[in-house]
TrEMBL record:
Sorted UniProt keywords: Methyltransferase, S-adenosyl-L-methionine, Transferase
Assembly, per entry: Monomer.
Entry protein name: Histamine N-methyltransferase
Keyword Methyltransferase attached: yes
Lineage of the organism: Eukaryota, Metazoa, Chordata, Craniata, Vertebrata
InterPro entries reported in the protein's UniProt record: HHMT-like, SAM-dependent_MTases_sf
Pfam families per the UniProt record, alphabetical: Methyltransf_23 (PF13489)
Gene3D superfamilies reported for this sequence: Vaccinia Virus protein VP39
């Protein structure tokens, strides 16, 4: 993304505030940056904290700095109040600033899975299981205008349907966000989840493979008027 911005605005220097609570992921990011000397037009500010800690920190220091571009990619699942988080970061936008949100689409297999089994699968202490459909409804209720786009994506989940398949078991853990799902879930829940994963609402079958609808949604919000 920074490369693309640089192509459009080659003369601009960038302050890049990185917000990431995981030490390992922050380290990985720093290693990538160190391997790209051509990013010398960017000043990286490393914030090892959650989005809510960053908000608290920002307000405490009474900072008035504004942002031209904020991206929240695959992260709104992990905040307690997605609406409040969006409102805070939207408030940081400068005059022509943009806030980019990417999550799984409400029409994806994830959306269908969460709608049917939210209570059984979603641990709200960890993840809110939100989709772009949920975020659009939230923004609509507040009268916030936005643009939306689709990012088609697919995932081969064929191994999930072979009992005891190691890769299939890991895929099931990933799809349900439950560790050792096959061992922990009741027989009824496991059967129901597998049936839904194979259903045309979630997946398509082609050439002996079960291909999961992993579509993502993109939402772009401007500075509030």
């Amino acid at each position: 993304m920074l490369d693309e911005l640089h192509k459009k605005h080659p003369e601009v220097t960038v302050d890049n505030e990185v917000v990431e609570p995981s030490s390992q992921q922050l380290h990985n990011y720093k290693v990538l940056v160190s391997q790209k000397p051509e990013l010398n037009y960017i000043k990286f500010i490393w914030n090892k904290m959650t989005a809510s800690e960053f908000e608290e920190h920002w307000k405490l220091r009474k900072l008035t700095k504004k942002a031209d571009f904020i991206h929240m990619i695959q992260m709104l699942y992990y905040v307690k109040d997605p609406g409040a988080t969006i409102s805070f970061f939207q408030s940081l936008l400068d005059k022509n600033g943009k806030l980019l949100i990417i999550l799984v689409s409400g029409e994806s297999g994830w959306g269908k899975l969460w709608r049917k089994y939210r209570n059984e699968l979603c641990n709200t202490e960890i993840s809110q299981c939100v989709t772009t459909g949920d975020i659009k409804s939230l923004l609509d209720s507040k009268g916030v205008s936005y643009q939306s786009f689709d990012l088609p994506s697919q995932m081969d989940i064929t191994e999930c349907f072979t009992e005891g398949d190691e890769k299939g078991e890991l895929l099931l853990d990933f799809l349900t966000e439950v560790l050792d799902f096959s061992k922990m879930a009741s027989l009824e829940l496991k059967a129901g989840v597998l049936e839904l994963l194979r259903h045309p609402d979630c997946s398509m079958e082609s050439e002996g493979k079960v291909v999961f609808n992993n579509n993502l949604g993109v939402i772009v919000i401007n500075k509030p008027t």
